[in-house]
Amino acid sequence: MTDAASHLNLLLMATGLLTIFLIAWLVDSSRLMRRSGKLLAFLALFILPVLVTWLGVVSHLAHSRSNDFCLSCHVMAPYGESLYLDSPDYLPATHFQNRRVERDQACYSCHRNYTLFGGVEAKVRGFRHVLVQYAGKTPDTISIHEPYNNRECLHCHEGARSFEESDPHQALREALGSNATSCLDCHALNHHPEEGTAISAWEEGR
Q: What is the mean pLDDT of residues 110-123?
């Protein structure tokens, strides 16, 4: 959990405890009859509960971007293991191990759409996945919801020296930009969790 998420959870707990304390303190009806008591009652019964709810939603939305959340469904565990494959041929592994994405949000970084409402769309898809996990049937074959758009790759790689000084990239630049040619045509090794057992695992700091 990141420091920001930890601080948010602490603030949520503190606000919740304050709400409980004020409600308990205002149970005494004599306090409720005073003007200051009425103001505190409004704060404890309306404002603070709304604030606690909002902080809870923000906290859970932040957690939903984490690898821990994405990999909490057992069917996704092999995909998480592929981040540690000791092979530069696997895109998730090389991106994760070389910090080309934020490590604790690696799944979200690569699988969200980099559009205006990309984050919202990712949350909606994630909610559907949760429903399938707990109230539906997990499909036998896991696949992404739509063909991978080069936009998600170019969002980070376009402008990078390794991309700009690569002759194959420059030769295909227009085709890559229009999705006429997919980045995955050349960089085809993605997760493939069924193959992971044959490759040793990378250990950070080894």
A: 81
Sign of CA dihedral 148, 149, 153, 156: negative
Cβ count within 10 A of residue 11:
15
C-beta separation of 108 from 80 below 8 A: no
Q: For the range 13-18, what are the long-range contacts, defined as Cβ-Cβ under 8 Å and sequence gap of 24 or more? A: 15/48, 15/51, 15/52, 15/55, 16/52, 18/48
3-state helix, strand, coil in the chain (%, to 5): 65, 0, 30
pTM, full prediction: 0.67
Mean predicted confidence (pLDDT) in 112-129: 81
d(CA 187, CA 33): 71
Closest CA to 80 of 89, 88, 90: 90
Q: Do residues 83 and 96 lie in contact, with contact meaning Cβ atoms separated by under 8 Å?
A: yes
Q: Measured between alpha carbons, how far is 90 from 54 in angstroms, rounded to an integer? A: 39
**Rounded Cα gap, residues 196 and 86, in angstroms:** 10
| Residue 32 pLDDT | 54
Segment 65-72 mean pLDDT: 88
